[in-house]
Design a protein that fits this description.
transport; membrane; Permease; transmembrane helix; transmembrane; 0% strand; Na+/H+ antiporter like fold
Length: 382
């Protein structure tokens, strides 16, 4: 059996166990598991991975590329969302414009990169995520505040200054970021994992081993999708994935000397699920709107929750699929075809609606002509 496919079956089995455990685990319990992943297991894995790489200035390209991808997706989402959502549905459009360009690789991508590509690529992923965090924490917040249109310019500046200060503090308080700072400082002084005391190094290594199965169980237990909006959300996520595949294909075609593992990394990292941070920004603005007693909200909070719920399993299955058929996906034309196919699938519902309207209009026109002819015949008889 193909090794990649065998690993895929193992991962899917663990996710399946998580789904089976849904009835035994309350939603409130999932928050504790998520804290354990993001505050203990994932920081340990990233710390170990970072201390295995050689710190070079060329590595700065990864956060720059990630940030460039975010900005490009923001621009693209402005156009492909307008073709899906109704013209007057501005709240949902703004909601999706904040969510779709964002990435949450911690839960949806990092565990699979560790399994399929190894610690070196996990370290590169952590560095790339720095650019993504600048985008989701600062740039998207500024965009959200711009849409909110605070009345007083002075108050807006004060609020923005305080919020940015809070974001910087939250960045420093997040365990993953602290771990990255400590690891990069150690590398700058020429130290690595073996330089640490044995008890500390062994403890961190032991904690890192629980990450992959814990995340997979979490994914299985957390999947609870609202069926009423599933079709629309799936269409938007498929369109997001299609555009992402096309961007990855362009990068791979531009650099034909890339190793197979790097090509897979370029494909799967941008396919990470939507980030929770834009939702946090929307919630903060919703609180301001409650104080101002605004009747028309800037964002659709309930819709955002459903998108986040669908995005994690969608990205997980997509990333597993890419790794399972890695021999096919290292070919840039396969990536290109995948992108075009997903875009075609995503536009199918819109095309069917247009065809239905055209058919209805045509039928009405034929009925009107039939009535006119019948009326004329009756007049002639008279």
């Amino acid at each position: 059996m193909n090794i990649a496919f065998q690993k895929t079956l193992e991962l899917l089995l663990i996710i399946g166990i998580g789904v089976f455990l849904q009835k035994k685990v309350a939603k409130s319990d999932l928050k504790g598991i998520k804290v354990l992943i993001l505050s203990v297991a994932l920081p340990a894995v990233i710390f170990v991975a970072l201390l295995k790489i050689k710190l070079e200035s060329s590595l700065l390209i990864f956060p720059i590329l990630a940030l460039s991808f975010n900005l490009l997706m923001l621009l693209a989402s402005k156009y492909y969302i307008s073709k899906t959502l109704p013209t007057k549905d501005n709240a949902r459009k703004r909601t999706m414009m904040l969510l779709l360009p964002s990435l949450a690789p911690g839960l949806s991508c990092f565990p699979f990169i560790v399994v399929y590509l190894g610690d070196d690529y996990l370290a590169l992923s952590a560095l790339a995520d720095v650019g993504n965090k600048i985008f989701v924490l600062i740039m998207l917040y500024m965009l959200a505040m711009h849409w909110y249109n605070i009345r007083s310019i002075k108050d807006a500046k004060t609020s923005m200054k305080n919020k940015l200060k809070g974001l910087v503090l939250s960045l420093l308080n997040e365990p993953i970021n602290l771990v990255m700072i400590i690891a990069l400082l150690l590398l700058a002084f020429g130290l690595n994992l073996s330089s640490l005391p044995d008890f500390l190094g062994n403890t961190i290594t032991s904690l890192s081993t629980i990450m992959a199965p814990l995340v997979l169980l979490f994914i299985g237990m957390a999947v609870r999708i609202n069926a009423s909006e599933f079709s629309l959300i799936l269409t938007l996520l498929a369109r997001r994935a299609g555009v992402t595949f096309l961007i990855s294909a362009v990068v791979v075609l531009a650099f034909p000397v890339l190793a197979s593992s790097m090509i897979l990394f370029i494909i799967v990292f941008p396919q990470s699920s939507c980030s929770f941070w834009p939702f946090a920004h929307m919630s903060a603005i919703a609180s301001l709107e409650d104080k101002d007693k605004q009747t028309k909200p800037t964002f659709d909070i309930d819709f955002a929750v459903n998108v986040l719920a669908c995005s994690l399993p969608f990205s997980t299955l997509l990333i597993i699929g890419v790794f399972s058929f890695s021999e096919l996906f290292v070919n840039p034309f396969t990536i290109l075809i995948s992108g075009v196919s997903l875009l075609a699938i995503s536009y199918t519902p819109t095309l069917l609606k247009v065809l239905k309207k055209v058919k209805s209009h045509s039928d009405n026109h034929i009925d009107a002509m039939s009535l006119n002819l019948e009326a004329q015949n009756n007049e002639n008889k008279d």
